[in-house]
Design goal:
- The chain is an alpha/beta fold.
- The protein has a single domain (3-10, 29-313), classed as Purple Acid Phosphatase, chain A, domain 2.
- It contains nine helices and 14 strands.
- Helix 3 (58-70) runs parallel beside helix 4 (94-111).
- The two termini are 27 Å apart.
Length: 319
């Protein structure tokens, strides 16, 4: 059973907190000290788990989502692609892979005028699953094809927006038992430590990962995970304790954005908000996913280190 089969077989109730309206983070120091109203400095849209391919009208769905976001009365200035851009690269041959990326580039070129920052998802990695029939020696094998498509030198990077620093993580580590697991390798962890240490101490920091670092959705998965405990490695970061202890050393870490589970969720822990942004594809373009519509998160950033999120359903229906 792969992760898609696992999630589709789960009966999620209300375990993941749905962000049905604007939700503001903890009060910022600047506003608390001065008594002034925080000023919004940027607005972005977090599109995650798009899973684009040539079936189930997914291209029409992404087109509708992009048009919806850009037509908002107060549109975002940036889109973050949260990973799992294409339906699946893990199990396919080169021809299927190229068709998916070709469709991806076509829709974005035609429908989006906004800059995009990219995150690598597990389904963006080519050939790690033996079902792909690849040998591992093919050009672009593994993460390389996705990196080239997104014009990235590596899966982790940083950018600044509205006075905030964003650190984009590569959650996907190869695993012999489960194909992949949520975890940073040693090199990336050292990079993260250096970035946190060198950032201005009062500059708010947001982390973006495909696989959630902290999630309560695991509670709903428990009965199914008992059948194969190894699947836990696929659903959340296995180094979460290490990361949280690291974040505690840097009080300006305010927000962690993720996707992967196709659920909307917010967990406040250790002064950090962990927000999961559902999925543009919902239930892999089959409809809503356990009370979570096909949608995306609108994120407002403020100059005092607070933020607001709103999960937006863009109105797509199964054709």
């Amino acid at each position: 059973m792969n992760r898609r089969e696992l999630l589709q077989g789960l009966a999620i109730g209300g375990g993941a907190a749905l962000l049905s309206g604007g939700v503001v983070g903890a009060k910022g120091l600047a506003a608390e000290e001065s008594g002034r109203k925080p000023k919004r400095t940027a607005r972005l849209a977090h599109f995650t788990d798009i899973h684009l391919y040539g079936k189930r009208s997914s291209a029409e769905g992404l087109t509708q989502a992009l048009r919806h976001a850009q037509a908002l009365d107060d549109p975002p200035e940036l889109i973050i692609n949260g990973g799992d851009a294409i339906y699946d690269a893990l199990e396919v041959d080169r021809a299927a892979l190229q068709a998916q990326w070709g469709l991806w580039n076509s829709v974005w070129k035609q429908e989006s005028s906004l800059p995009v920052k990219h995150v690598i998802g597990n389904h963006d990695v080519w050939g790690w699953n033996k079902k792909s029939g690849t040998t591992g020696k093919e050009a672009g094998w593994g993460k390389q094809q996705a990196l080239e498509q997104h014009e990235l030198p590596r899966g982790y990077h940083r950018f600044d927006l509205g006075g905030w620093r964003f650190l984009v993580l590569d959650s996907i580590t190869a695993d012999e038992e489960t194909v992949y697991r949520g975890e940073l390798d040693a090199e990336q962890l050292q990079w993260l430590k250096n970035e946190l240490k060198s950032a201005p101490p009062r500059m708010p920091i947001a982390l973006v990962s495909h696989i959630p670092i902290v999630t309560v959705a695991m509670l709903e998965f428990e009965e199914h995970l008992k059948e194969d405990p190894r699947k836990r490695k696929m659903l959340s970061h296995q180094d979460a304790r290490t990361l949280i202890h690291l974040f505690r050393q840097h009080p300006n870490v305010k927000l962690c954005l993720s996707g992967h589970t196709h659920l909307t969720e917010r967990v406040s822990f250790s002064g950090i908000d962990f927000v999961n942004s559902g999925a543009v594809s919902g239930l892999w373009w089959k409809g809503d996913h356990y009370h979570t519509d096909e949608g995306y998160n609108v994120v407002d950033l403020f100059d005092d280190g607070t933020f607001a999120t709103e999960y937006v359903s863009y109105g797509w229906t199964v054709g």
